[in-house]
Amino acid sequence: MGYDIERFVGYVNEGLLCSICRDVLEDPLQAPCEHAFCTACIHGWLVHHSNCPEDRQMIDVSLLRPLYRYMKNDLNRLQLHCKNREYGCGMVCSLESIDRHERECEYSQIPCSNAGCTVQIERRNLDGHLAVCEYRSRECPNGCGYTILSAEDTQHNCVAELRTELELLRSEMICRVEEAKHEMESRLDSQRRHMVQKESILQNEIEELKSQMSRMMSDVRSLMAAERQHRQELEQAELEKREL
């Protein structure tokens, strides 16, 4: 849908009106036959039709193009009233800047920022409303630190709230202790398995060293026996030499 033509100040050229809604073009697109439409209007039209609503020439979404620059400039220069005119805003500005103004307009109806409040109020009156809103929150004046809504003032009990908070902290602490306990047990089990594995490796190495030492002792005994044999042979040879 386009901009309501009643909002505009002065004459609006016929070529700047949407051929479907007959209001001033909003986010305009132009067909090859040069008829212009609001984007929302022409897209909705083409869901059920395949021709131009003005001259019935065949058109497709892919053939739509942005408005000619000179027409876009003429459109942006049009002057119109703020949509909040009925609430008291007297601003008149160009179509090019109307969106920016309306986003910041003091007369815009905006929702209360307090959770649970459904009031719609003018932006300029928001601070005053927040000061008295029944859904506004504040810290307990008695010093318990609890945040309360004004509507809950009569039901708020510092002792009960602190007891509830204490129970929550106690439950949280128990959970943390249990988690720490499980984590420590898991670590101990992991270390125990590692040490058992290490012990097994060391035991295997000891057995291998014992086997190597046994072989060495056997070799030493063999060498000593060979040495005695060799010495006896030398002594026998020495005796024979003397006899000769």
TrEMBL record:
Residues 192-243 form a coiled coil. The gene is Rnf41_1. Residues 18-56 form the RING-type domain. A zinc finger (TRAF-type) spans 101-144. This is RNF41 ligase. Keywords: Coiled coil, Ligase, Metal-binding, Zinc, Zinc-finger. InterPro entries: Znf_RING (IPR001841), Znf_RING/FYVE/PHD (IPR013083), Znf_RING_CS (IPR017907), Znf_TRAF (IPR001293). SMART domains: RING. One of its GO terms (biological process) is regulation of canonical NF-kappaB signal transduction. GO terms for molecular function: ligase activity; zinc ion binding. It comes from Dromas ardeola. Residues 101-144 form the TRAF-type domain. The keyword Ligase applies.
